[in-house]
Specification:
The chain is mostly helical. The chain has one domain. Helix content is 80%, strand content 0%. The mean pLDDT is 80.
Length: 83
């Protein structure tokens, strides 16, 4: 049952990171699931960036990297898909 709790926490944190990134990048009019998807993809991108540039560690650094990764994903979305 612990794995289910971890997945739920990751979804909530991913959604919040996606929401913060959408506010930073000024994206409006999207549904809640868009923020969750952007946050989760951004978390993966942020984790990749963190492994390439090992600057810090810990949960706060992970959240910051997730937000940066989410901003990158939103920027790519705006440039490629939402013309």
């Amino acid at each position: 049952m612990e794995w289910l709790w971890k997945i739920l926490v990751e979804l909530v944190i991913g959604g919040l990171c996606g929401f913060v990134a959408s506010k930073i990048m000024k994206v409006s009019g999207k549904k809640w699931w868009f923020y969750v998807i952007v946050g989760l993809i951004g978390g993966l991108v942020g984790g990749l960036l963190g492994s390439l540039i090992p600057v810090g560690e810990g949960w706060l650094f992970g959240v910051i990297l997730s937000i940066v990764g989410s901003c990158l994903v939103v920027w790519l979305y705006k440039k490629i898909i939402a013309k």
